[in-house]
């Protein structure tokens, strides 16, 4: 907190003295590039934090500029401007949020498609701005837009831009360090795990995109009164491209990167374009080199060093709030799940062919069967990852066929994947936090620094069982394979699920680690009174843990029973012999 | 960062080979209260975009005028320095450049030959704090303080030519096509009045975006379907070239006449001899206009840029005249930037042009106009209109 | 037949077939390498400037063809080696890098030739009577050449040994490599081939376009939309995509105007990207 205040004071002081040093013209120029920098900050959030690249931010900048310009022209000197101008800045945010919800819904990977959609949208926005003469003024644009009331000279305009930039920077600095920032970075690394931790991915991404829309909106809304002229190019492809280049060269993942990029490159361009005829070529080459070799950008060399000085991990002092219990889902009868004649098909291959499986009470159950029997597919169908062609799935007594993973996680279904699925570039602490926040944190918890200090009894117990988990500052990606398996398992456990789906939790573990894992599962299952389903090949593991075994073969349930019953079953033996022959 | 703290002047050229003699002599012809120093003139000429084919002639003619003026002692004794800017940029870019020229370079005057959207942006940016001379043909109505227009107006270009074409060619039906910005829209507004007055009818009107990679096959096909007698063209530069080529390529030149209101030697050269049959142009200057001052102007131009002079056209000649207008204006007002004094001086201001002298009233110019028919890639003047009023009422 | 209708139909065929030639290069590269070359449009632009250059030197128009092929082949080789190959495993970065390349080429041409709109004289003037409609000879020739080019390449792709190899690599690069198909060399040749196709399209279209540095931008966007609508990496998709994008633009332009034509194309592209990102004919 103290470092945050010191940081803020330094930033504000630097911005305040600048115009005295550089004179009127450069104050004017800086004011303009500060507005662009604010929009570029939004790209830093989307691309550098949450990992998806918007190529059409100018659309939001331009929209806000037109709205703000029209407001100023039609409501000059009216008190209504106090509502209309903030509205002009927020409207693009709402639009971006809406677009985000629509585009990200049901889509797990954003990638190039999202980028190209935003690019096409910005071209469309340009077309509309350029041809809707009655409203936008067409090619000529909105002319003679009055300035903000009471502000006249170029230095006044500078201070408005500087204040806006400082406020945006401080807000973003806060959010980046708050839980929200951790969740964004988690999204960039592993969208699937984020969903399985209970976060509605499309909402998270749409919110980031919406926020970037607001940032572009603030820039655009101030642009109109500062430049007194808004033309269609403001919605266009070239400004969109510039914003991305600035963020990339400045350092997209850093706080100051987009600002440094916009101000430095913008001013160099304004100054050098006429002097060096190849300046734009040099700039393009720099961009290519950054993409190829220096993805962290300019500030990527500087900022992390300082961040390391500032950042200290919050001690875990607060017990996390209890999970909100989904109403009506309690009671022994509703503890488990049932699959009724479930069929799944991929391409021309039938994966599940009428699978029936029912577990109605807490306990530890193992799913076994030869490769291709449909064990993992069974989990995928239950968690909405594979489309179910026919049949029904009930979880905790309710129809849950095709229900999305994030909702399942929130009602108490936890899943561990076969290959460890976690956030390699986050610290162990942050990995735990994602597990703790998922399904528990409300919106306000996600913007509060205190939520970093959440803890839980299960976490403490896990840290005492597996001492390496207490070294919370390590990067999760630096752990050994076995340690990552255990970390993921603990992430799932601390969400305190009542239905646990574990896909080969002992794969790649040493003998000793396997034993620890077995004990941990038994302990957690008992403590949470959970229904634990384990896909496993390791028969010692199965023998030791399983209350009951289900054998899958060719997409159907072949047999079920206790360990002894299954070992005695002729059909099971035939399948395994057949499979190994 | 030193660049920001210590903004040094940008690349600029001191136009022409001004001898040290002129520089030494300059203080002797001091006028007004201003100390001798350079007279900084910013020029917005078409360096890019669809009008950029006019850039070389504009730049060359501007340089010729500045060289002549500097050789004769400069403007009010101050040597003229030209700071070039791109008039072919978008309005927003041009406005930013205007502010830079005003605040950082502290120019004494701005001269522009570019489209009207850019003019409006520059006028709004300058807010009358720096005098601004606008030279190419335009739609009329520019009366903002401290703006001086030497351009042709629709009253001068369109009115006489439409009535002549209606009468001589017997044109009854008209098709209007232009770029989608203020000049074509406002010019066509006027044209429609004159067409109605001549008893004609507009059968189609369309506008294409300015500065976009336009294609014209569908517009030409539409014109083909409407079969007008005359197509009135307010397309600019590259679009005008491509439209007329496509028009003739589809064989429409055999049956339909065209008049273009921004068609000078360079555009016609681009259109090509095989595509120019039945095409007319109406302007205040054609290179082959046969007057003695024009012959002198052309000889001076050829000599200044020997051995390979750039092509000459109306848009260049206008810049030449505009620079002389700026000189006369500033000297008459006593070397000030003050809008009030300059605007007072502009009334009945006499200045030199490529074809003689002109007189400014209401900050516009009364002109002789010409209507020419294209013969291959040259213009054949078929009618002259003497001292046509500009129809503007700026105070 | 009504000459206006004939003219409109010919306009649509012209638009679709020339678009297909431009997209072909992009599609082949994407199909084989999985690389969306966003600088493809700039190769078209460079081809167009080659035509302009040749004409400014008073050489015959056809001299532009070998020049453009040479320039773009060399450029393609360099780009493949320096930009595309190091990024095979990072498709999103390839997108950004080729996007940077498109800016680089655009700005480089601008630094040499300026932003001026240049005109290239039509090598074939006059018009031909097609069912009572006067249609410009060069446009007609271009349409015929484009259709022949696309058809010829499709035929070659389906019938030739190299075509079979390319398809093998598309289906399973590892297997193709293990049975002795030189995957790296094939990838390089394909990329160069795509660049050359773009250059050729640029030369052919130059007389009908305002030649300027931003000319490629228009093409790359439209080509990308064609691939999105048609489906990435299939020939049926390529042709149907060109048909939808080129056809819609030119029909809407004929009835309303170019602005509406382009706007409609954008809306179609957005809807496809959003609702049917695999296009009409997805690759299975």
Summarize the entry for a quick read:
The complex is a heterotrimer of chains A (581), B (395) and C (284). Helix content of chain A is 57%, strand content 11%. Chain A is of the alpha/beta class and 581 residues long.
Rg of Cα set of chain B? 21 Å
CATH topology of the largest domain in chain B: Rossmann fold
- Annotation, overall tally of beta strands of chain B: 16
Please estimate the helix content of chain B. 25-40%
Q: Please state the average pLDDT score of chain B.
A: 86
Along the chain, the helix and strand elements of chain B come as: HHEEHEHEHEEHEHEHEHEHEHHHEEEEE
Major sheet strand order of chain A: 7-9-10-4-11-12
What best-fitting shape of chain B do the alpha-carbon axes yield? Answer: globular
Low-confidence segments of chain A, given as residue ranges, are 326-333
Tell me the total number of β-strands of chain A: 12
Descriptive notes:
The complex is a heterotrimer of chains A (about 575), B (about 400) and C (about 280). Chain A is an alpha/beta fold and about 575 residues long. Chain A folds into 2 domains: about 230 residues, no CATH class; about 200 residues, Rossmann fold, CATH 3.40.50. In chain A, about 55% of the residues lie in helices and about 10% in strands. Chain A has 23 helices and 12 strands. In chain A, helix 20 links the parallel strand 9 and strand 10. In chain A, helix 1 crosses helix 10, helix 2 packs antiparallel against helix 3 and helix 10 crosses helix 11. The termini of chain A are far apart. About 0% of the residues of chain A have low confidence. Chain B has about 400 residues and is an alpha/beta fold. Chain B is globular. Chain B has 2 domains: about 220 residues, Response regulator (Rossmann fold), CATH 3.40.50; about 150 residues, Rossmann fold, CATH 3.40.50. Helices cover about 40% and strands about 20% of the residues of chain B. In chain B, helix 7 links the parallel strand 7 and strand 8. The N terminus of chain B is likely disordered. In chain B, helix 12 crosses helix 13. Chain C starts with a helix and ends in a 9-residue tail after the last helix. Chain C has a two-stranded antiparallel ribbon with strand order 2-3. Chain C is globular, with a radius of gyration of 19 Å. In chain C, helix 1 runs parallel beside helix 5, helix 1 packs across helix 9 and helix 3 crosses helix 8. Chain C has one domain. Chain C has about 280 residues and is mainly alpha-helical. Chains in contact: A-B, A-C, B-C. Chains A and B meet through helix 1 and helix 11 of A and helix 1, helix 4 and helix 5 of B. Strand 2 of chain B pairs parallel with strand 1 of chain C.
């Amino acid at each position: 907190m103290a470092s945050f205040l010191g940081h803020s004071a330094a930033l504000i002081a630097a911005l305040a003295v600048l115009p005295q040093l550089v004179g009127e013209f450069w104050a004017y120029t800086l004011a303009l590039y500060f507005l662009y920098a604010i929009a570029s900050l939004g790209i830093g959030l989307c691309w550098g934090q949450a990992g998806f690249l918007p190529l059409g931010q100018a659309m939001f900048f331009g929209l806000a500029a037109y709205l703000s310009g029209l407001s100023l022209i039609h409501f000059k000197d009216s008190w209504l401007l106090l509502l209309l101008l903030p509205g002009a800045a927020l409207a693009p945010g709402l639009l971006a949020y809406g677009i985000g919800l629509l585009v990200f819904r049901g889509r797990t990977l954003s990638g190039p498609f999202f980028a190209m959609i935003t690019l096409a949208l910005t071209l469309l926005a340009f077309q509309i701005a350029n041809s809707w003469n009655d409203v936008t003024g067409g090619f000529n644009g909105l002319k003679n837009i009055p300035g903000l009331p009471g502000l006249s000279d170029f230095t006044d305009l500078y201070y408005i831009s500087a204040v806006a930039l400082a406020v945006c920077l401080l807000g973003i600095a806060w959010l980046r360090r708050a839980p929200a920032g951790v969740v964004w970075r988690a999204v960039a690394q592993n969208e699937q795990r984020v969903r399985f931790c209970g976060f509605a991915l499309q909402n998270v991404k749409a919110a980031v995109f919406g926020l970037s829309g607001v940032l572009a909106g603030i820039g655009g809304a101030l642009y109109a009164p500062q430049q007194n002229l808004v033309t269609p190019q403001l919605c266009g492809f070239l400004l969109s491209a510039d914003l991305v280049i600035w963020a990339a060269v400045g350092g997209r993942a850093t706080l100051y990167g987009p600002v440094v990029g916009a101000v430095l490159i913008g001013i160099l361009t304004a100054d050098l374009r006429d002097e060096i005829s190849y300046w734009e070529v040099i700039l393009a080459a720099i961009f290519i080199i950054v993409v190829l070799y220096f993805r962290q950008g300019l500030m990527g060399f500087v900022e992390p060093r300082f961040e390391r000085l500032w950042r200290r991990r919050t001690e875990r002092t607060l017990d996390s709030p209890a999970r909100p219990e989904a109403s009506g889902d309690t009671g022994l009868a509703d503890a488990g799940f049932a699959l009724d004649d479930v069929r799944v098909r991929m391409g021309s291959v039938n994966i599940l062919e009428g699978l029936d499986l029912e577990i109605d009470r807490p306990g530890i159950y193992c799913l076994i069967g030869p490769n291709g029997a449909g064990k993992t597919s069974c989990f995928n169908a239950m968690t909405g990852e594979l489309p179910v062609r026919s049949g029904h799935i009930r979880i905790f007594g309710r129809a849950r066929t095709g229900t999305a993973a994030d909702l399942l996680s929130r009602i108490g279904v936890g899943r561990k994947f076969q290959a460890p699925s976690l956030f390699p570039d986050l610290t162990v602490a942050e990995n735990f936090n994602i597990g703790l926040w998922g399904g528990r944190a409300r919106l306000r918890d996600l913007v509060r620094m205190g939520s970093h200090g959440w803890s839980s009894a299960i976490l403490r117990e896990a840290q005492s069982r597996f001492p390496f988990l207490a070294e919370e500052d390590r990067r999760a990606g630096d752990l050994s394979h076995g340690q990552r398996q255990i970390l993921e398992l603990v992430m799932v456990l601390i969400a305190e699920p009542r239905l646990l789906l574990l896909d080969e939790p002992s794969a790649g573990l040493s003998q000793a680690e396997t034993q620890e894992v077995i004990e941990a599962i038994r302990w957690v299952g008992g403590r949470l009174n959970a229904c634990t389903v384990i896909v496993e090949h390791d028969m010692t593991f199965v023998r030791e843990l399983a209350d009951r075994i289900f054998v899958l073969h060719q997409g159907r349930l072949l047999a079920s029973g206790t360990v002894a019953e299954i070992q005695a079953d002729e059909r099971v033996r035939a399948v395994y012999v057949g499979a190994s022959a | 960062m030193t660049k920001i703290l210590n903004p040094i002047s940008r690349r600029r050229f001191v136009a022409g080979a001004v001898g040290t003699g002129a520089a030494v002599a300059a203080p002797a012809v001091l006028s007004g209260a201003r100390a001798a120093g350079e007279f900084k003139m910013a020029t917005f000429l078409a360096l890019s975009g669809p009008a950029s084919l006019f850039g070389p002639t504009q730049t060359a003619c501007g340089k010729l005028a500045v060289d002549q003026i500097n050789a004769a002692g400069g403007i009010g004794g101050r040597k003229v320095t030209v700071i070039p800017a791109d008039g072919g940029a978008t309005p927003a870019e041009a406005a930013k450049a205007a502010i830079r020229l005003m605040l950082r370079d502290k120019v004494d005057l701005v001269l522009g030959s570019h489209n009207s959207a850019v003019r409006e942006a520059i006028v709004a940016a300058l807010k009358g704090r720096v005098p601004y001379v606008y030279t190419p043909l335009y739609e009329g109505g520019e009366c903002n303080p401290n703006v001086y227009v030497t351009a042709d107006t629709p009253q001068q270009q369109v009115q006489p030519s439409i009535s002549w074409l209606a009468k001589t060619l017997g044109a009854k039906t008209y098709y209007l096509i232009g770029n989608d910005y203020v000049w074509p829209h406002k010019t066509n507004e006027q044209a429609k009045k004159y067409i109605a007055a001549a008893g004609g009818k507009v059968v189609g009107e369309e506008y294409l975006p300015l500065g976009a990679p336009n294609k014209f096959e569908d517009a030409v096909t539409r014109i083909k379907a409407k079969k007008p007698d005359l197509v009135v063209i307010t397309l600019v530069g590259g679009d005008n070239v491509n439209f007329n080529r496509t028009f003739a390529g589809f064989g429409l030149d055999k049956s339909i006449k065209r008049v273009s209101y921004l068609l000078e030697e360079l555009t016609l050269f681009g259109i090509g001899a095989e595509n120019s049959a039945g095409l007319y142009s109406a302007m205040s200057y054609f290179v082959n206009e046969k007057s003695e001052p024009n012959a002198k102007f052309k000889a001076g131009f050829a000599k200044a840029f020997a051995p390979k002079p750039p092509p000459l056209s109306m848009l260049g000649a206008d810049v030449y005249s505009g620079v002389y207008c700026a000189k006369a204006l500033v000297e008459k007002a006593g070397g000030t930037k003050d809008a009030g004094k300059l605007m007072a001086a502009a009334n009945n201001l006499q200045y030199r042009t490529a074809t003689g002298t002109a007189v400014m009233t209401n900050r516009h110019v009364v002109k002789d106009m010409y209507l020419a028919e294209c013969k291959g890639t040259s213009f054949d003047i078929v009618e002259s209109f003497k001292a046509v009023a500009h129809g503007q009422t700026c105070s | 037949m009504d000459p206006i209708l004939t003219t409109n139909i010919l306009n649509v065929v012209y638009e679709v077939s020339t678009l297909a030639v431009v997209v072909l290069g992009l599609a082949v590269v994407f199909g084989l390498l999985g690389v969306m070359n966003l600088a493809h449009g700039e190769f078209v632009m460079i081809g167009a400037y080659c035509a302009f250059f040749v004409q400014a030197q008073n050489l015959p128009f056809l001299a532009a063809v070998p020049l453009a092929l040479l320039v773009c082949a060399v450029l393609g080789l360099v780009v493949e080696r320096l930009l595309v190959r190091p990024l095979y495993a990072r498709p999103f970065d390839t997108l950004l890098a080729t996007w940077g390349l498109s800016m680089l080429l655009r700005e480089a041409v601008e630094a040499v030739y300026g932003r001026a709109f240049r005109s290239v004289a039509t090598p074939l003037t006059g018009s031909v009577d097609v069912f009572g409609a006067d249609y410009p000879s060069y446009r007609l020739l271009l349409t015929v050449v484009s259709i022949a080019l696309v058809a010829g390449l499709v035929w070659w792709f389906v019938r030739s040994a190299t075509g079979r190899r390319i398809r093998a690599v598309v289906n399973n690069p590892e297997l193709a490599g293990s049975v002795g198909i030189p995957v790296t060399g094939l990838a390089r040749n394909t990329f160069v081939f795509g660049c050359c196709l773009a250059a050729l399209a640029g030369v052919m279209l130059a007389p009908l376009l305002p030649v300027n540095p931003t000319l490629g931008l228009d093409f790359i966007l439209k080509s990308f939309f064609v691939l999105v609508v048609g489906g990435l990496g299939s020939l049926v998709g390529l042709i149907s995509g060109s048909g939808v994008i080129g056809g819609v633009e030119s029909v809407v332009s004929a009835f309303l105007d170019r602005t509406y034509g382009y706007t409609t194309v954008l809306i179609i592209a957005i809807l496809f990207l959003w609702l049917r990102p695999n296009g009409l004919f997805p690759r299975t």
